[in-house]
Specification:
The chain is an alpha+beta fold. The chain is built from four helices and five strands, in the order αααβββββα.
């Protein structure tokens, strides 16, 4: 009865919880399989939030700007994998042509004495322009510090 009372006290958290991979394989309380609860109902709220962060966390909003060929143009915001980096090919919603990431920038704000990420910016180019720029960079000799 006390377990059912605890479940009734947090129904909104249970609706938000995503089922963990593999289901509820480890119950630990010896309950029979006929009284199965929905996945996530037997976890405390802080573990449910950690699970949601793990599932949703890898995708982050980026501001996308086409920088080459000039003039630069803002393509808007879109969710991408947090590990998106230089050389990755991305596709924007509403655009048929792909883009290649040429640079990833982070803009910071100083808040309460700590720097916090304000915006993440992807600078993109068309694949053809990216290839041309890479060839041009290879033709220019790099100066070595002596």
């Amino acid at each position: 009865a006390s377990r059912q009372l605890a479940v009734r006290q947090r129904p909104s958290v249970a609706r938000l919880a995503a089922s963990p991979p593999g289901g509820n394989a480890k119950s630990g309380d010896g309950s029979s399989s006929s009284s199965k609860r929905p996945a996530g109902m037997d976890k405390p709220w802080w573990q449910i939030e950690e699970e949601m962060d793990r599932l949703v966390g890898p995708r982050m909003p980026f501001r996308v700007e086409r920088v080459s060929p000039p003039p630069a143009e803002s393509l808007g915001y879109q969710l991408f994998d947090s590990k998106t980096s230089r050389g990755d090919v991305i596709k924007m919603k509403g655009s048929e042509s792909p883009f290649v990431v040429s640079k990833v920038r982070y803009l910071y704000d100083l808040v309460n004495g700590r720097y916090r990420i304000r915006t993440k910016v992807l600078e993109v180019q068309t694949p053809r322009r990216f290839q041309i720029n890479e060839q041009l960079e290879g033709m220019v000799p790099r100066e070595t510090a002596e």
